[in-house]
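Quick one:
INPUT:
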């Protein structure tokens, strides 16, 4: 379903815009932009400002034609943040700068990326990757109380300005955060017979030097003579046009590597079958996509425990997507947008990542 919006603003601020609903295909943004609604041409030489934003229903898209008489064109492009889980996700990037006027009318296509889904968001409503210029990778999922849900955070999608179908400016999306599960058991009121620890991991921030996702970890505590440990590596951030690799897992437990980014799209987080609860964060989208985190997981046989043993594990956070400025036609500076959810206690029911936006101003 596509919702057509009316032309926004006065004649000097012409914009024809439509919003892609959840589930729409935006894995190859440059191709999809060919289907955008026709541009509304700005009239006269008055200045104007246009802002489009993504929301939970879809990416924001639009086409605006800057008049030939414009002498100054400025932009702010913000990528979607990753979704929180048991740790905080990564921020999207903010790219600010100017486009060189050409003396001719300039049709610019705008794409504002969605923020990543957070832990606890149901797959029935949020089972498609966040959309934008380079979709964010979904985080790992699990079933809670009979409902399939996002368990680790999805990566945020990238946002962009395109000229003739090619990216002029791209702001990368932040990596999604991961979840972990620790277990213990022993007789009521008695000493522990077995115990494990596990830590979740943060997603990587997009920005001038996009960050890898943080590492998660899991370990046996030395009870009843059992010991062991493992590390779930965070997804690698994208570097320029090169997508990030998936995280690597090391140690004594079952090891599942993360998925690398693919083109502009972030890597999908890992879901380990069973009840371990070990999942990893998805990579952020952008000029190139970040990788997802790895997972370490284990089932430890203990006859006295519920289900005959205990599950535990940990996942790594997702890496950030990269940003871009075409320096032949524009000049810009890249920073962190600071737009992830600031929930004080990450976990079930937390907000997803802050959505992206694109603002164009001309005079």
């Amino acid at each position: 379903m596509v919702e057509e919006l009316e032309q926004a603003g006065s004649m000097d601020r012409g914009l024809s815009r439509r919003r892609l609903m959840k589930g729409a295909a935006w894995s190859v943004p440059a191709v999809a932009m060919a289907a955008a609604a026709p541009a509304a041409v700005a009239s006269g030489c008055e200045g104007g400002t246009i802002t489009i934003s993504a929301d939970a229903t879809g990416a924001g898209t639009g086409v605006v034609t800057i008049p030939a008489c414009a002498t100054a064109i400025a932009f702010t492009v913000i990528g979607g943040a990753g979704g929180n889980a048991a740790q905080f996700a990564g921020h999207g990037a903010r790219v600010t700068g100017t486009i060189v006027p050409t003396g001719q009318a300039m049709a610019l296509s705008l794409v504002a990326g969605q923020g990543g889904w957070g832990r606890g968001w149901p797959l029935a409503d949020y089972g498609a990757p966040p959309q934008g210029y380079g979709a964010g990778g979904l985080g790992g999922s699990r079933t809670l109380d009979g409902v399939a849900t996002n368990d680790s955070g999805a990566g945020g999608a990238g946002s962009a300005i395109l000229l003739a179908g090619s990216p002029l400016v791209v702001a990368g999306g932040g990596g999604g955060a991961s979840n972990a599960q620790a277990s213990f058991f022993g007789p009521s009121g008695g000493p522990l017979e077995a115990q494990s620890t596990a830590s979740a991991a943060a997603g990587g921030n997009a920005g001038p030097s996009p960050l890898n996702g943080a590492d998660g970890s899991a370990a046996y505590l030395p009870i009843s003579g059992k010991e062991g440990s493992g590390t779930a590596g965070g997804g690698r951030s994208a570097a320029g046009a090169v997508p990030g690799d998936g995280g690597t897992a090391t140690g004594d437990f079952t090891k599942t590597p993360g998925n690398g980014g693919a083109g502009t799209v972030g890597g999908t987080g890992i879901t380990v079958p069973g009840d371990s609860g070990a999942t990893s964060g998805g990579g952020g989208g952008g000029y190139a996509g970040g990788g997802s985190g790895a997972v370490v997981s284990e089932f430890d046989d203990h006859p006295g425990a519920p289900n005959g043993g205990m599950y535990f594990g940990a996942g790594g956070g997702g890496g950030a997507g990269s940003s871009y400025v075409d320096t032949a036609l524009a000049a810009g500076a890249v920073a962190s947008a600071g737009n992830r959810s600031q929930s004080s206690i990450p976990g079930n029911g937390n907000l997803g990542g802050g959505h992206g936006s694109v603002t164009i101003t001309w005079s």
